[in-house]
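4.2 Preliminary Data

To establish feasibility before requesting continued support, the project team ran the inverse folding procedure on a target of 631 residues. The structure was first converted into the token representation described in Section 3, and no sequence information of any kind was made available to the design step. The complete token record follows.
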């Protein structure tokens, strides 16, 4: 083949490769912004190669313009290098400053290109080796020096990042240096004519390999799609070489046998030759495919049987803890190294520090806008094959999380339905018992009228206790029907405090005058009567006893704090346990007082909690919406 034609063909192939990869990188830069600069580099390289083709075809002005736009290539690459390096560990202020002001560098580059176009920077001359070549002269050397300086600066930035990064990022930088050295070796002959050397640029015939190696070196450890393409390309390359080798061997053997051309080969020999080619191809396909897979995806083996096993094992998990432990065991066994799986429901209520250890492999599942998302943490330094396995497993785990969440929601809905039915039955039972118990209690009360005063007093006291227990049972088990009205808190609280015999207890009431609350007055009275009754039971016989009620309006919420300096509650009781029935039971009480308070507060869309951090032994904090809507 004519050398000039070969050169032109290689320039067209290089331009096509660079343009295709530029488009591919630009498409993926939506997800990895770092790739945008590399896409620009590929586009300018495609135009630069076309410039050589235009020169060969007497398109002098267009070819000259494209070749003198050469400084844009290292400018785009420098922009890419700044973004690629300034991540994670590398936070140098000068890198951030350079990336923020990269627009000025583009402006300076554009200025250099415009000056090169308008000034005497280069021309097209006849060449015995290549027909027509572009040579730099005068201001063109400024263009060339500026291009070289930007290339050196870009690789200096990469070298700076290489010193700090580890793992795959460091390997990618090394690959870029090797590809850059290869590209420099191939492209250097383009300047020979400018120094009077009329040589044919043989190295440029291999230039198509430069953009391929450069881009693959960058994304080798970043994108699995690239490795899948490389897997197939390597397979076809090896198979083609083997086929060519076989054809050369057969032709040589035929030549020794005196056969000058395959056209004269008998049919049986052609059949034998074709059969040998097919047999060799079939025999070599599997081992070559396995070799290519091990080179591209080392360290992991993924097949349909393993995926089916994973799916079956994950589907059998009935709760979040079992799912988390099963998933971690399955993936750890497949990879032969420890992997932690974090699910929100499985880690609730306990502290996990897995994400703090960057050396530990994690898979984290979480919900975002109602959809389950899977995030791989600590996998950057793993080989592409291992990351592929983790991504496939993560997809299965996300589906299992969604199915388990739906199953648990359905079970919880059924549980709540049964609970509501149980409450209705309990309410009916409590109402029936109250009616049946009050009749004999009334008879006992009337019968006690004939006994002496002291005994009658004891009987009446026990009858009141029984009647209060019945009333509390009816309130707790029945359905709360709220009748909203506007309540002025200050007179309400004063009247409720006066209903108790406080003896020597000091009372403090701090309520903003005129503060109104929209609520059910009868139920709110029950809340404060229960709290005041509990406080009165513990304070009456205590020296320097104090009950304090502090009311504050905070935005649209009314905050009521009821303090007393009586005996502290059992520290083993949690806030949740304290408001359960029959948990905290004082002498003479029903054990339902605080549970009733909690029910009434929930019905008003309010909150109640027990606090020990307000400077009092016992403090209850109630939060009422100031304007509770009618429901």
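Position-by-position output of the design step:
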């Amino acid at each position: 083949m004519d050398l000039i034609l070969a050169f032109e063909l290689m320039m067209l192939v290089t331009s096509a490769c660079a343009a295709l990869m530029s488009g591919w990188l630009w498409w993926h830069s939506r997800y990895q912004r770092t790739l945008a600069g590399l896409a620009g580099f590929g586009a300018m390289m495609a135009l630069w190669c076309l410039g050589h083709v235009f020169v060969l075809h007497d398109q002098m002005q267009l070819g000259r313009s494209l070749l003198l736009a050469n400084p844009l290539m290292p400018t785009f690459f420098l922009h890419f290098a700044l973004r690629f390096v300034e991540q994670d560990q590398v936070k140098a202020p000068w890198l951030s400053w350079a990336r923020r002001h990269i627009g000025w560098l583009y402006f300076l580059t554009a200025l250099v290109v415009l000056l090169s176009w308008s000034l005497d920077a280069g021309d097209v001359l006849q060449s015995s080796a290549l027909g027509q070549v572009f040579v730099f002269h005068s201001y063109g050397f400024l263009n060339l020096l500026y291009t070289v300086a930007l290339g050196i600066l870009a690789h200096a930035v990469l070298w700076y990042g290489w010193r700090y990064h580890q793992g795959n990022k460091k390997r990618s930088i090394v690959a870029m240096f090797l590809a850059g050295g290869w590209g420099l070796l191939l492209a250097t002959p383009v300047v020979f004519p400018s120094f009077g050397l009329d040589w044919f640029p043989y190295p440029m015939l291999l230039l198509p390999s430069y953009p391929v190696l450069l881009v693959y070196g960058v994304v080798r450890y970043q994108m699995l799609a690239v490795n899948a393409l490389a897997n197939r390309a390597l397979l076809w390359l090896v198979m083609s070489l083997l086929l060519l080798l076989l054809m050369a061997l057969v032709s040589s053997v035929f030549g020794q046998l005196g056969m000058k051309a395959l056209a004269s080969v008998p049919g049986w020999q052609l059949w034998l030759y074709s059969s040998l080619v097919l047999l060799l191809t079939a025999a070599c396909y599997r081992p070559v495919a396995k070799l290519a897979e091990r080179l591209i995806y080392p360290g992991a083996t993924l097949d349909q049987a393993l995926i089916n096993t994973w799916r079956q094992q994950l589907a059998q998990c009935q709760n979040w803890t079992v799912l988390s432990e099963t998933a971690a065991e399955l993936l750890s066994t497949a990879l032969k190294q420890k992997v932690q799986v974090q699910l929100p429901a499985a880690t609730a209520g306990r502290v996990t520090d897995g994400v703090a250890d960057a050396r530990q492999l994690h898979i984290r599942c979480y919900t975002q806008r109602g959809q389950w998302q899977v995030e791989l943490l600590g996998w950057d330094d793993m080989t592409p094959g291992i990351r592929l396995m983790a991504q496939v497993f993560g997809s299965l785990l996300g589906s299992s999380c969604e199915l388990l969440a739906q199953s648990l929601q359905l079970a919880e809905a059924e549980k709540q339905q049964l609970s509501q039915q149980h409450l209705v039955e309990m309410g009916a039972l409590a109402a029936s018992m109250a009616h049946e118990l009050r009749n004999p209690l009334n008879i006992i009360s009337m019968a006690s009228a004939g006994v002496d005063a002291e005994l009658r007093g004891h009987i009446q006291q026990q009858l009141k206790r029984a009647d209060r227990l019945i009333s509390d049972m009816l309130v707790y088990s029945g359905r709360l029907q709220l009748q909203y009205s506007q309540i002025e808190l200050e007179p309400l609280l004063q009247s409720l405090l006066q209903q108790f015999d406080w003896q020597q207890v000091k009372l403090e009431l701090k309520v903003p005058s005129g503060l109104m609350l929209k609520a059910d007055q009868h139920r709110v009275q029950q809340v404060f009567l229960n709290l005041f009754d509990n406080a009165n039971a513990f304070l009456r016989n205590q020296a320097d006893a104090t009950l304090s009620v502090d009311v504050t309006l905070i935005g649209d919420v009314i905050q009521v704090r009821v303090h007393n300096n009586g005996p502290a509650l059992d520290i083993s009781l949690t806030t949740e346990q304290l408001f359960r029935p029959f948990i905290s039971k004082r002498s003479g009480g029903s054990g339902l007082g605080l549970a009733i308070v909690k029910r009434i507060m929930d019905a008003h869309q309010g909150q109640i909690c027990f606090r020990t951090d307000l400077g009092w032994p016992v403090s209850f904090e109630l939060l009422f919406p100031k304007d509770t809507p009618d429901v």
